[in-house]
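[[Encoded backbone]]
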Amino acid sequence: MRQIFSAINYCHKNNVCHRDIKPENFLLKFKDDPSSIKLIDFGLSRKLTEGEMLSTPNGTPFYLAPEIIKGNYNHLCDNWSLGVVMYVMLSGSPPFYGKNNKDILKAVVGGVYTFNLKPFKVCSDEVKDLISKL
């Protein structure tokens, strides 16, 4: 996660909003080197000007921030997606789900999730706090 945060921080320092943060968009450059994580797929990314807000909904439903769904967002939407990625990596399931994309988006906007899953019982309070803040 540290490398993933670093990649997003680099994008944000250069005013780039990725808009499609998800586990599938992180690859290992070297198969046997877990420290060689690379962020890929900048097809939905946008270079922003200072204070610019975006309105076009883009991304993968499970990982979309509520602001994207509501149509008024900036680069900080990537942080929400990082929280979802972290949740998925630790639990194996998304925090927001539904039968179809409409239900998933409704759940995301509702923002209700739980740490009552078995994998979270061994996670520190700090990890859960970080996810909640993202």
In short: The radius of gyration is 15 Å. The first strand starts at residue 16 and ends at 17. The beta strands are 16-17, 26-28, 37-39, 46-47. The CA atoms of residues 123 and 130 lie 11 Å apart.
